[in-house]
Design a protein that fits this description.
Blueprint (H helix, E strand, L loop, with lengths): L2 H13 L3 H9 L5 H9 L2 H18 L7 H21 L8 H13 L14 H13 L3 H12 L3 H8 L6 H22 L4 H11 L4 H17 L11 H10 L3 H9 L2 H7 L22
Helix pairs in contact: 4-5, 4-6, 7-8, 7-12, 8-10, 9-10
The protein binds zinc ion (2 copies).
One zinc ion binds next to loops.
């Protein structure tokens, strides 16, 4: 199942929660893949809570937990990662009791040597750079806005146009850029342990053919993973919904969060409803190493 499939179902189910009735059914044996899909898809929010809850407990028990936003977002996105794996592999485990199958899958993940490694390629310097930037964006608005610059080379004015922000929201974008250059950037590199030598290495690598192609490939992994930190803003939207959002003026938070973390939607929404006012071509990944 694709992540878009998961996102649509999470979105839909949040609108009509059916938690109490779902638990019972999830404890019963399901015998076919079709039954598995049906029962599980009706209770995604509950299963997400459960997977996130186990992850939180694991962090507590291993001394890795802190009461802050970063940790809350961490368990939400890992809960969603586990749920996604469960949706794919659970179908082939029938007959099974879905609730207990999820429990054992999560427990197995947590017993691995590196339980929170979502992609091996992100251990390279380029991968660490991207993972660090995108990971920071989950907890810092300045870093979130800075992604538009680092990933696509967009300036504040272009960000304001791309997000269709109005007059009162625009100054904040300039402030985000400014604070990022002044302090956010340096602090983030320090936090992820990215040294001047690492940066120099990447600068040399940047001259190579295919650098931005590789950056795009890794960026997509990072975006998909970190977007799961906010289930409410996670789902990709169809064209007409973006257009509607822009024309009606709602969903500002959705635009800022989702478009920073989704290349596909950014390209889809880029010139919707602008009547050709955005002469610039759709954004592509052109990694900027400096703020
Ligand atoms: Zn790892
Ligand atoms: Zn999207």
């Amino acid at each position: 199942m694709s992540s878009i499939g998961l996102s649509h179902m999470l979105y839909r189910d949040r609108a009509m929660p059916d938690r109490m009735t779902s638990v019972g059914r999830l404890e019963d044996v399901v015998s076919t893949a079709e039954d598995f899909d049906r029962v599980v898809l009706q209770s995604l929010p509950l299963l997400l809570d459960r997977a996130a809850g186990y992850t939180k407990r694991f962090l507590r028990e291993t001394g890795q937990w802190s009461d802050d936003v970063a940790h809350e977002k961490f368990v939400l996105r890992w809960g969603a990662e586990y749920l996604e794996q469960f949706l794919v592999s659970g179908r082939s485990e029938v007959p099974c009791r879905p609730l207990f199958l999820l429990d054992s899958m999560v427990a197995r993940q947590h017993s691995r040597p590196e339980p929170f490694c979502y992609h091996r390629d992100l251990l390279t310097p380029l991968g660490r750079f991207l993972d660090g930037l995108v990971g920071r964006a989950v907890v810092s608005r300045d870093a979130l806005i800075a992604l538009y610059h680092h990933c696509y080379g967009l300036g504040p004015g272009q960000v304001i146009t791309a997000l269709r922000l109005n007059g009162s929201e625009s100054p904040r974008i300039y402030k985000n850029f400014q604070r990022w250059r002044e302090s956010g950037w340096k602090r983030t590199l320090d936090d992820i342990g990215f040294t001047d030598a690492d940066l120099q290495g990447l600068t040399e690598q940047q001259q190579r053919h295919r650098f931005n192609g590789e950056a795009e490939r890794l960026l997509r992994f990072a975006q998909t993973h970190y977007r799961k930190s906010e289930p409410d803003h996670y789902p990709c939207l169809p064209r007409h919904q973006w257009e509607d959002m822009f024309l009606q003026g709602y969903g500002v938070e959705y635009r800022i969060w989702h478009l920073a973390l989704c290349l596909d939607c950014l390209q889809l929404a880029w010139d919707l409803g602008l009547d050709g006012a955005s002469a610039k071509e759709k954004p592509r990944v052109t990694l900027q190493l400096q703020p």
